[in-house]
Amino acid sequence: MSDYDLINGEIINVTITVDEETVTGIINTAARGPAGADGSGTNSITSATTSDGTADLDLLNVDTVTATVTGTLTADHIHGNLAGNVYGHIRAGETLAKGDPVYVSGSHGSGSTLIPIVSKADASNAAKMPAVGIMDAGVTIHNNGHMVITGTITELNTAAYSVNAELYVASGGGFTATPPTARAQPVARVERVNANNGAVIVKVNGLSASDATANTLVRRDASGNAAFGALNTSSLTVTGGTTFGEESLVQFDATEYYYGTDAASAHRTAMQVPGSVTTGVTGADAISNIISLTAAEYAAISTKDAATLYVIVG
User: Domains in the chain, please, with CATH?
Assistant: First the structure.
């Protein structure tokens, strides 16, 4: 059953009752614009209430050219293009500042109300990586807020960076433009450089918490070279040249090979002695190393090693 009243030829008050549920609405006919199957025109229901007092209006299907929502739009499924920031609802596991990269440190609620608890990401701590978003505003501990997963964050201090600089999660938290030695996760690009009104474009890349640690390939440096703090391998084939820096030490099994120019280092070049080199030399069986060094370096050795053959080269 439905009733309606026409007011001034423009406003229609409508009351519809179905199965004892009453919905009232106001339709402004003067603003309807052109009608069309494509949903064009501005004919609209400007308000709606139900008899249970919830003021909810359920629509099975709506076609519109443009829709503006000034509050929060909640939808189980969105199909189509998106423009603007993509946020995630969060609960603060500690006091967070605007611009803090955050990782998942727990969960709050249950069922449809479940949201992640997040805390400051830290590149120096595998347990606090990787970052999953960046805070769009400061939030105190145990309060709810939002993290940006994709989009732009403005009003940040980006004075220390350059436009288009890639930003990583820093050791200790926050941003850095220098890739950390371990767990270098890029999370944003600088859009605007300014101490008060800087902006970054959020681009949180996936990263395993173990990246750049044990059992993980090491990333290349800015020149495209792989840098290793240590390398353990059961087999290594070198097809090009191998260069050792000053004061370098190479160890094969239990034999050490020293390279360097520092006069304080008695072992300037040491190598295991092939048997053919000492053939016919008295006491050759006792010689295990040959060292080349200058006369000054030789004189500086207070106690000579009986198992070492010293070769004066200058």
Answer: 2-50 (no CATH), 86-203 (2.40.300), 248-312 (no CATH)
Going by pLDDT thresholds of 50, 70 and 90, the confidence category of residue 268 is very low
Assign 3-state DSSP to the chain and report helix, strand, coil percentages, each to 5.
5, 35, 55
**Is the overall model pTM greater than 0.90, yes or no?**
no
Backbone φ and ψ for 87, nearest 5 degrees, come out as -110, 160
The answer to whether the CB of 297 falls within 8 A of the CB of 311 is no
Q: What is the pLDDT of residues 103-160, one digit of tens each?
A: 999 999 998 889 999 999 999 999 999 999 999 999 999 999 999 999 999 999 999 9
- At 24, the amino acid letter reads T
Three-state secondary structure call for residue 127: helix
Q: How far apart are CA 169 and CA 120, in angstroms?
A: 10
Cβ 168 vs Cβ 185: under 8 Å: yes
Spacing of C-alpha 150 from chain mean position:
12
In which element (H, E) is residue 176 found? strand 175-176
d(C-alpha 308, C-alpha 253), whole Å: 19
Q: Which two tokens stand for residue 302?
A: 């207070």
